[in-house]
Amino acid sequence: MHISLWLQELLLILLPLIRKIKTWSLFGRRSENAVMEKDACPVCAAKPIMIPYVAEPCGHHYCYYCLKTRCISNRSFRCITCNAEVKAMLHILKKQQ
């Protein structure tokens, strides 16, 4: 059971990373072809955001991997869009049709 949770977390990290590598240059900057849009991740510019999370309290949307890694590496991480300190992450559940 613990292995399946570990594997799920690993996949949640690796899948967005693969997408991120495609859109970023070697040094971690956005590629010139990446265009920021309202419903794109402000870090990797992925559109649509595959595993969407919301930064609380500001409510801006990020990819799970982008937000999680920044919150882990910097406990006082500030939102890239509005500079508010991120206190929590909330998963956005897609609406069922």
> What is the alpha-carbon Rg in Å?
14 Å
Number of helices, where a helix is a run of at least 4 consecutive DSSP H or I residues: 2
- List segments where confidence is low: pLDDT < 50 over at least 5 consecutive residues: 25-36
- H and E string: HEEHE
Portion of residues in beta strands equals 5-15%
- Apparent shape: globular
At a glance:
By secondary structure, this protein is of the alpha+beta class. 33% of the residues lie in helices and 12% in strands.
Write the layout of secondary structure elements.
Blueprint lengths: L1 H22 L28 E5 L4 E3 H10 L14 E4 L6
Structural summary, described in words:
By secondary structure, this protein is an alpha+beta fold. The chain is 33% helix and 12% strand. The protein is built from two helices and three strands; from the N terminus they run αββαβ. The chain has helices at 2-23, 64-73; strands at 52-56, 61-63, 88-91. The chain has a three-stranded antiparallel sheet.
